[in-house]
Amino acid sequence: MRARTGMMLVLTLLTANPAWSQTANGRPRLGDHQFVSTDLVPDAFVRTYVRSDVGAALAGTIHYPPVVVAGDTLQALDGSLSYARLDAEYQQKLRDWVAVRFAYGLRSRLGTRPSSLVSEGVTLASGLEFGWLARLHESRKTALAASLAVSSQYITVVDVKQFAEDVANHVPDARLIDLVPTVRTEAGLRLAWAISRLFGTTVVGEGSYGESPHRRDADSWEYNAGASVDFDGHAAWDIPLGVALAFRQTSIPSWTTEGSGNSSETVLRLAYNAKPDLLVAVDLLGVFNRENTRTVSVWAGGASFSMRYYF
To answer: What is the spatial distance between Cα 11 and Cα 14, in angstroms, rounded to a whole number?
Structure first.
């Protein structure tokens, strides 16, 4: 981890522009279209900005299968799950073609009823990310950028059910609370296209390699892909409203350390976009998460509040 971070910091010093000059400020624009960026699908533009968002989602009634403890089958009651997140990011443009960014993320997942609290426990994931964004190509209608990042994350798991099973089965060193550290390297491409004056789209594809969130697994390759379509109501009707629909799928567990297959998130963003350097948005969230204890994916719906300022 130290070697990776040191290499990234050296690259920062080598490419830094002492004047910190910027020829393009404000929200991203291609041609006549000004994009409505989302937090779920990052944009493909070298800009200086700071952003933050906070949100929560709630899953409805979840049916749990019977639990086997020390050979006895116990019928589990229905429960529910809640999700919460907090994100902050700062990106600084070093030159016209490259930017460096720092991000912090916090995720929590816990059962909100006694049955789900016992079955699901509590998962808290927090981490830092340091990365680069480099412009590869830009024309009047399209922009292509490459991203590179190193992330360090700690996942804290409180698993009541597993702890009870381990105690009943006389497993040595049974733990109620487990801390799983992970370090991963990520790289990918981002493409932005101004379809027209009113519509734009962004596509992101990333691959990552590093320590698995599953304590018993070796290092793994994972992927992350997403796309968004945005509409500029300010350009259409002179109304300070931007709308964006974004979707992202990942093979990296975002809310649990269990090997649960792919998970996906959907966001419908309603943003105030009257100012060229500020975006204030309310996001309607949808989270789909599959876990090994169930054959049906868990769906959670919620909302988040986001602010992004360009300077």
So the answer is: 5
